[in-house]
Amino acid sequence: CHCSVYFSPFKTCCFIDCQLYQFHYINKNKTWTEAQQYCREKHTDLATVTNMKDMKRLNNISAGYQSEAWIGLISKPAFTRTWFWSLPGVEFSESETNWNPGEPNDGGNQGSENCVIVNKNLSWIDNSCQTPNHFICYNGEINLFMNYFYMCFTWQEAQSYCRENHTDLISGTKQLQDGAVKNVMDSRSDYSHIGLFRDTWRWSDISSFSFRHWNNDFNYPESNNKVILIKENKTWEDALTYCRDHYHDLVTITNMDDQRWIQEKVKNASTPFVWIGLHYIWSLRFWVWVSDEEVSYENWASPGQMGDCDVSGAMETGGGHKWFKRNDSDLFNFICSKK
């Protein structure tokens, strides 16, 4: 059984809780919130996973069960992004940073740069987690720093490699100040991933553990913090209601930059189209965004799309990510915008 966490706390699923570092698989179907309440009443809380050893214990206790299981990790729109070091036990301190001048700039406030690279001077630069770079692993057992400059990975791929072959991505100012690191970086003109990242995920027991162990297909951390793909199949109206209840609205696309952000998200959808916040008003014969934005930018598969009664706009998840009109009753994944 693979232990997994869903963003939505309303999806029913089996779950895992723990007490005094003993994990118990509870074979009951509950939402995340119901599972949290059950664990707090019967035990301590939903499981907190602090390192790879805990992860292996979870996998062992889940063996033989076919369903996925809740753990105590959740993200909400109200949570602010917080910096963490990848290596468990290394705490991030705002008073011990080495940002390059003008950093972190978050990609010009696009909410897209949630991981960190270093330049040859070991100054920190926030960067997209999806951009392949060289990286620095830390080998804690023999206190050496291993540099693998012949490989370019995304941040998550680099983290997985370091955990499987060494200890973790290099983490903390003490490790980065080691002379061996400076000697290697002095001879290079490119950038390398380090173990600094930020996200909005929090543990149910309010602990500050930075450990994350996402599936490889999880876009981690979020490449765009302003929108989210919901991989549930709903009609257009149900998708609209869901977004307004849990986030802000179905997504509005007003320019090419918006289009690029959204089309990266929809690549991970499980349906051939995803709903967007575009609806056809039959009585007035024109398209409108649910946010009341003017439809100034268009990316239709066929120019001059005319609608019918009860149709809305959907983006294809493959090909050129063009827009198509689809019946409101069709069941697709959808994109929500955040406030």
From TrEMBL:
Instruction: Enumerate the spans annotated as C-type lectin domain.
Output: 16-138, 145-226, 231-337
From what organism does this protein derive?
Xiphophorus maculatus (Southern platyfish)
List the PANTHER family.
C-TYPE LECTIN DOMAIN FAMILY 20 MEMBER A-RELATED, C-TYPE LECTIN DOMAIN FAMILY 4 MEMBER K-LIKE-RELATED
A Pfam family cross-referenced in the UniProt record is Lectin_C
Keyword flag Disulfide bond: yes
Keywords, sorted A to Z? Disulfide bond
Q: Which domain of life is it from?
A: Eukaryota
What protein name applies here?
A: C-type lectin domain-containing protein
tRNA-binding in keyword set? no
